[in-house]
Amino acid sequence: MRITGAQLRIVEMPLRSPFTTSFGTEDDKIALLIRIDAVVDTPAGPVESTGWGECVAMDAPVYSAEYVAGAVEVTRRFLLPKLLAAGSSLTAQRVSGLLEPVVGHPMAKAALEMAVLDAELRARGISFAEHLGAEHDRVPSGVSVGIQDSIPQLLEVVGDYLDQGYVRIKLKIRPGWDVDAVAAVRERFGDDIPLQVDANAAYTLADAAQLRRLDAFGLLLIEQPMPEDDLRQHAQLARLVSTPICLDESVVSARAAADAISMGACRVINIKPGRVGGYLEARRIHDLARAHGIAVWCGGMLETGLGRAANAALAALPGFSLPGDISASDRFYAQDITTPFVIEDGHVAVPSGPGLGVTPNPEILESVTTWKDDLPV
Ligand code: OSB
Ligand code: MG
Questions:
Q1: Where are the alpha helices (DSSP H) in 264-304?
Q2: Angle of the 231-240 helix axis to the 254-263 helix axis, nearest 10
Q3: What whole-number distance in Å separates Cα of residue 22 and Cα of residue 62?
Q4: Atom of ligand 1 minimally distant from the CA of 142
Q5: Where do the domains of the chain lie, and which CATH numbers do they carry?
Q6: Which of 67, 144, 196, 296 maximizes ligand 1 atoms within 8 Å of its Cβ, making it the mutation to test the pocket?
Q7: Please, which residues bridge with residue 197 across strands?
Q8: Phi and psi, residue 240, nearest 5°
Q9: For the segment 198-256, what is each residue's pLDDT rounded down to a tens digit?
C-alpha cells in the first residue's frame, strides 16, 4: 500500500469516575489517534482505504516512559517518515521492521502499525480477528477496579460490576491498600469469584512478606508487583509467594517475554499490544507463551472503542486462557467515539467487519478532539 494522507489527533474524554492506580489518578482519558489514508493493492486492483490507530500512551510518563506529546513528536518527526519512505512497498507486516531503527516508543509504533493494518484489512474485507487467528466470536470480560477512598466504597463498586456480569475482578493495589481490600472483597463476595490484583510496580522485594499474605485469598495472580526492569527480583519473589506472578510493564517485547519465562519471573503474561510495539509482536508473545505453557490475557489501557475493538480481536486467539481487561465501553465512558462495546452474559463481542470493524462517529470524534494536524505525505 501507499500512504496518501496522515492525520494526528488528540482526544480528551471524561472518565465516568476517576481511575486511581499506584501511579496516580486520572479523571480524563487523553489519547493520540492516528488516521492513515492509503491506496491498497488488492487482488481486485488498487483500493482507497482508511485506517485508524490508537496510541495507548498516557498523558504523563507514569506507566511507562511514553506520553501523548512525546508520541506526537516521535510519530511526526521520525516514525511516519520511515513509512512514507517505503513508498508503495509498505505493508503492515513490514511496519515494525521499518521502525526498528528508532529506539523505544513501542506505543507510538503500535498505533502506526494498527492504522496501517486497519487500512490494509478494510481494503481486503478481512477482520482483525480473522487476520490475527481468532478462534472465538466473543471474549470473557474482566474489569479493572481502581483504588477507592474506602473499603465500603470498594465493595459497592465491585458489587456493581458483578451485577453487570463481569466474570473477573482485578483490584489495583499499592502499599497500604492491598491485603485488607482483598480480604474485604473475599469476605463479601466469596471465594468463588475470579479475583486478581495489579500493583503497577509499587512494591520491592522487601515487601515479600506482605505480598505473601495475599496467598491466603486464592488469587488468580499478582500483576507486576515490582518495577519494570526487575525481572530477576520477580523471579526471586515467585519463589517466595505461591500466587502466580503475572508481568505487565516488564514485558516490553517478545525477547523480554522469553527472558522472563526462562528466568521463572512469571507464570502469566498480560499482553498489551501498545506496550510491545504492535499487534503482530503481541501475537508472537502469545505464540511463545503458549509453547511454554505460560497463560496469557489481554490487558487494557482505557482504550476508546478503536483500541477496544483490536484488543477484543487479539483476546479471541486460542492462547488467551484468562479473561482480559476488556470491559464494556461504559465502564469508562458515558459516550464512546465508536458504537459502544457492551457486556452481555459476561462477554464482549469480537467485531467481525473489515479491519477493526468499527469506525469513529465523526460528530462525537470532533466533539472530543482538542487538537489535530494533517501531516505532509
Ligand atoms: O496496569 O493494566 C494496567 C490502565 C492504565 C494503565 C495501566 C493499567 C490499566 C488498567 C486498566 O488496569 C485496564 C483497562 O483498560 O480496563
Ligand atoms: Mg497492569
A1: 279-291
A2: 40
A3: 10
A4: 16
A5: 2-125+363-371 (3.30.390.10), 130-349 (3.20.20.120)
A6: 144
A7: 171, 222
A8: -100, -20
A9: 999 999 999 999 999 999 999 999 999 999 999 999 999 999 999 999 999 999 999 99
Q: Which residue has the cell 504523563?
A: 60
Phi, psi of 247 (to 5 degrees): -105, 140
Whether this model's ipTM surpasses 0.90 comes out as yes
Element (H, E) at 226: none
- Output the pLDDT for position 152: 98
Query: Residue 230: what pLDDT?
Result: 95
Ligand 1 site residues (CB inside 6 A) read: 63, 144, 198, 200, 248, 299-302, 325, 327
C-alpha cell at 59: 498523558
Q: What single-letter DSSP state applies at residue 301?
A: -
**272 a catalytic residue:** yes
Single-letter amino acid, residue 100 = E
pLDDT band at 101 (very low <50, low <70, confident <90, very high): very high
- Ligand positioned closest to the Cα atom of 333: 1
Catalytic residue among 29, 82, 172, 372: 172
Residues listed for the chain: 377
**Count helices and strands in the chain by DSSP H and E runs:** 13, 13
pLDDT for the residue 215:
98
Q: Give the pLDDT confidence score for residue 201 in this predicted structure.
A: 98
The best mutation among 301, 314, 343 to test binding of ligand 1, ranked by most ligand atoms within 8 Å of the C-beta, falls on 301
Task: Look at residues 336, 339, 320 and name the one whose alpha carbon lies nearest to residue 272.
Answer: 320
Ligand 2 center to 198 CA (angstroms): 6
pLDDT class of 334 with cuts at 50, 70, 90: very high
Catalytic site includes residue 170: no
Q: Whose CA is nearest to atom 8 of ligand 1?
A: 301
